[in-house]
Amino acid sequence: MLPQKTVKSFQAQNRTLQGSNSHQTKLSAWKIKQDLSNSKSILKHGQNNLVEDCGHDDNQAGDALQIAVGYFEKGPIKTSWSENKTLERHLKTVENVAWKNGLAPEEIDILLNVALSGKFGNAVNTRILKCMIPATLVSEDSVVKAVSWLCVGKCSGSTKVLFYRWLIAMFDFIDHKEQINLLYGFFFASLQDDALCPYVCHLLYLLTKKENVKPFRVRKLLDLQAKMGMQPHLQALLLLYKSFAPTLISVSLPVRKKIYFKNSENLWKTALFAARQRNQGLSPEPLKLMLGPAKVRPLKRKWNSQSIIPLLNSSNYTKECGKKMSLSDCLNSNGSFPPEQLQNFPQLLQNIHCLELPSQMGSVLSNSLLLHYINCVKDELVLLRLYYWLSQTLQEECIWYKMNNYEHGKEFSNFLDSIIRAECFLQEGFYSCEAFLYKCLPLWDGFCCQSQFLQLVSWIPFSNFSEVKPLLFDHLAQLFFTSTIYFKCSVLQSLKELLQNWLLWLSMDVHRKPVIRSPLETTLGESMNSVSKLIHYVGWLSTAAVRLESNSTFLLHFILDFYEKVCDIHINYDLPLVILFPPGIFFPALLSLDASILNQLCYIMHRYRQNLTAAKKNELLQKAKSEFNFSNKIYQEFNYYLTAMVGCLWTSRPFEKGMHIDPKILEKAGVAEYKDSLNLVHHPSLFSYAVFFLLQESPEERTINMSSIRGKKWNWYLDYLFSEGLQGLKLFIRSSIHRSSVP
Amino acid sequence: MSVLRPLDKLPVLNTATILLVGTEDALVQQLADSMLKEDCASELRVHLTRSLPLPSNVNRPRIDLIVFVINLHSKYSLQNVERSLHHVDASFFLGKVCFLTTGAGRESHCSIHRNTVAMLAHTYRSPLLFCDLEVEEFRATMARRLVRMLQICAGHVPGVSALNLLSLLKSSESPSPEDP
């Protein structure tokens, strides 16, 4: 019954404040007045600081504002034409100041009362509500008072809607929320109103704590859903309830839905942004005064230089207002440990059982200790809250949705950076980022925030490739083929990281039953299928890119980097998958003019050999046919590549199978002796090594005979090549060639 | 000559010509300027027009790529493009046409849905690009991509043809590499 009591007393306060005839006893009125004047002086102080910052010009505006607020407080005297004019003038004053600097908490307090008490017409109320922009914070009391006016029934439906929207938009600016949480029942009852329902849902979503979830509320919500159909806002709230109390709700709800709520912040967007900046830019003094406790807020400046990520602030940490509490006090009295007091890792370990999460999940992104915590809690809700915050914020901050504000780009890319850091830290991708990519990648130009976007791509959670392809990879391919070679290389790089992340997740998942959070409850076979599709996709991209960029060495490097990962899947990740590169990659690499490419190719062939031998051994050991036996096709393909390589580099019999050129044509072209032109000595990428080798031996020689490298000299030449750093070649020759066959 | 054909003229040596069709004069002009700033081995020619057909009495080089610019904020620009498309010979759609959509970022201003344009591009089997031309950085990137496409369409990149590029860009229909 506490909420109603507070409501009443606040209405009493109202009356005294308005100076109308009070029916209260003098004593209580006096008490309240004193309270108010106390808080006023504190608030004034804060406001003065602000005004001083803004300079002389604003001082005058401040005076005008005081007069205007006073005017509204008194209420309309009579409705004459001249009165309308003054009203208009005062409204203008308030609007100007509000949009420029924001309003002090006490002004908001008064004006909210005015707007919701219905003293003026609907139009005026709307205008007042629309300019309720806080300079720094909104005091909780004002909100409670305002809510109390909703019960009186003096304001129209549209004003109510606007008020709820305002409340949602300003939620972060309310200094503390315990009293508001006490009104939970009242808000919940307002769900009945069809017009209010979406907004009330949103508010409840922000407000709900575990103890608010009660069976009767769940029943009511389910009834509502049955009546109104699957409304996204109801679903969101139900989902939240379900995550708090999974036993109470048995209906299945879609987990991966993008945006549940209508955006309430639109009206105040720019103002909110400015207010956030003000709050961060200001010296902490006025903030501290308003918040009460004499604690310095731990500003994690390291990651937190941008304003998009909110500051750390627990939901009920101002409970111990006014008292200075030691750590142990805090533990004993409260039972929960506020996150902003968390300073180091030992503290986290000591309090991990009673750590309270911040009121705004976004703030964990900038706090590595809390990320540790998130990493080890098994609470679905934590991630759900984080995802919800992320998808909202990403949507709002994304640059190409804010065309008029392009300077904002730096801030956005910083924000993405800290998301990526958090993803790296947790070693898992966020679904909200994935959904964001699906939505905005088609509009991406491939240039702005390039590295951030590509890194986000590499953190896409493991999913069915065929499903993701039309949403994401098709658009990526379009960008890939029309952009520069550098972009192509970056894409290949991030796809390599994506593959690595997927493989890591899978190799972890193979050994334990997939948890609920794991994206797909698939069999290993389906997962392997998805991975192999990704690899084929990259193969397709690379083959086309090699052609588009006319065999660029630079590009080949990135492609072979990718295949270095691919060739070792079986051994490194213990997954039953070996996929070879397409011929469109193999042959350009084999005939490349760059020795390092050839070296890399040799290394990859060597690793393929190791993986395939290991796979064969496994098969022989297991005897029983498992579903993951490699088909003979892969071995044949590998042998084909191997023969081609040995034929070119070693035995000087290149392409004996599958290629026939009329000797007459070769004679005409002057390359009748073509057979040894691709061996280790004459290969275009190794030719210079051979020349240097010969010159080392006999520096005086004017003409050198390349074909003199044979027999023992061939072995010396090999040692020379190995000493020059061609380790891949060394491994390849050791594993694939029996040295007896030295030509 | 009411219908534009890709191969009714001989190519000029080392010259690539692009035709930008769109009602957004200022934006298209700026796009053309950014394209000309790109350094490129071939000699670039950019022709602008509000709509097709082109006047027949002017001597102009062979056109290697037509870009239809559609502004999602204006229904007129879409209608204009749809009308102009009738004056393009079918063989142009073998890789020498693309659609460029601007204004998709500000969804609240859109009077045409993105899917409408996607359908149009799909009907004509041509790639669809998105770019907000009002922002200079985005425009410059798009100009670079268009120049790259133009070079391929003009046959200045060895081993790749316009049709080839088209098949790559329509990647959703790309054959699965698993098939033999």
UniProtKB/TrEMBL annotation, chain A:
Region (Disordered): 1-24
Keyword line: Centromere, Chromosome, Nucleus
Signal peptide boundaries: none
Primary localization: nucleus
PANTHER family, alphabetized: CENTROMERE PROTEIN I (PTHR48208:SF2)
Compartments reported by the entry: Chromosome, Centromere; Nucleus
Gene: CENPI
Name assigned to this protein: Centromere protein I
Similarity field: Belongs to the CENP-I/CTF3 family.
Pfam families registered for this protein in UniProt: CENP-I
Domain of life according to the entry: Eukaryota
From TrEMBL, chain B:
Cited InterPro entries: Centromere_Cenp-M (IPR020987), P-loop_NTPase (IPR027417)
Keywords, alphabetical: Centromere, Chromosome, Nucleus
Signal sequence segment: none
Domain of life: Eukaryota
Protein's cellular compartments: Chromosome, Centromere; Nucleus
Regions crossing the membrane: none
Name this protein carries in UniProt: Centromere protein M
Native source species: Galeopterus variegatus
Gene name tied to this protein: CENPM
